[in-house]
Amino acid sequence: MAKIQFTTPEGQTGEAELNSERIALGRAADNALVIAHDSISSHHGEFVFDGSVWIFSDLGSTNGTFVGGQRVDSLEMAHGGVFTIGHVEVVFIGDEEPAEASYSAPQTLTHTGYGATPIDKSRRSGFGPKSKPKSYGYGPLYGLGFLMLAGCAYAIYSALNLTA
Question: In this structure, are residues 88 and 53 in contact, taking their beta carbons and an 8 Å threshold?
């Protein structure tokens, strides 16, 4: 039975069998194959068996699927083939081990569309720690305002004590 072996950048490893004709992969718990790593989208991609070959298709993930550093939308799996989903390295182990474990160049079905658009992470919201806005140097102005308020309060207090 075909399977994948994966390794996260932190060194955690795992293995999963491809035991169905269509297997969804992602970080969310409703996927058949769950890899809980921040670089993997909730519904990153899916493995499909067409009767003779396994195909992995990226479902428009944020961090993409790569083979040899090149982003791909879909690729045909071959025994020993290495690809990256997000930042997680994946090795495909086919049903039968051929005499030579080689990996032919992947078939790239498309390189256009939403999945090929680079993401400007500086414009994203809701991810990571909140950053504090930069100060514009109003501290001394606030201090001067406090001193003036205290001076006015002292003047009123003194004026009330002189008439009594």
Answer: no
